[in-house]
Amino acid sequence: MLWPTRLTLLIIVLCAHSYSTLGASIWSSAAMAETFMQSFTSTLGRSNILEADQMDDIASISDTLMSAVKKSGGKKNKLQALNMAFASSVAEIAFADMTGMPVDVKSNAILNALSEAFLQTTGFVDSYFLQEIRGLLNMFAQASANEAAASGAASESAAAAVSTVGYGGRVGYGTDTVAETGISGAAGYGGQGG
């Protein structure tokens, strides 16, 4: 009974280790990273989901990551950092503003482009990496939505403050008008009585 448990644990550990190295493998060589980035960028560009300046930003991030891959020396911790840098950069760029396409449309286009890039580069789709990206996309989309809501609330608050000042000014004018009306009303009353 002890051997099957140990054997199962050994298989799980070996699979987990090989699975974690698969995600990092796109960064393991400059050629593979470049192929992955080109495939991702071109597939995402064809989807017409992001604005031209967002695509330029992703291309710029790709260049930066390529430089980092060349300097990483294949160290596992640096490769994992590149994974996270890539994921968070794409998510940040995609949801820097909440204009354009709906969140789910942008997210699906990015995930589809990543899947395509993985297939073209490695022959498989790293679903764990895609789940991490999906989580980051959701996080950045929520943060942008919260920021937009807070900005909108601040704008409404400022507009209300301006409106209140304007209303207060009208009250002042109204007071003058009431005073004038009272005077002319008194004169009118006196005129009617006399």
TrEMBL record:
Keyword Disulfide bond belongs to the record: no
Keyword annotations of the record: Signal
Domain of life of the organism encoding this protein: Eukaryota
Signal peptide residue numbers: 1-23
Record bears the keyword Signal: yes
Pfam families xrefs: Spidroin_N (PF16763)
The Spidroin N-terminal domain, residue ranges: 26-146
Full protein name: Minor ampullate spidroin 1 variant 1
Protein source organism: Trichonephila clavipes
Gene of this entry: MiSp
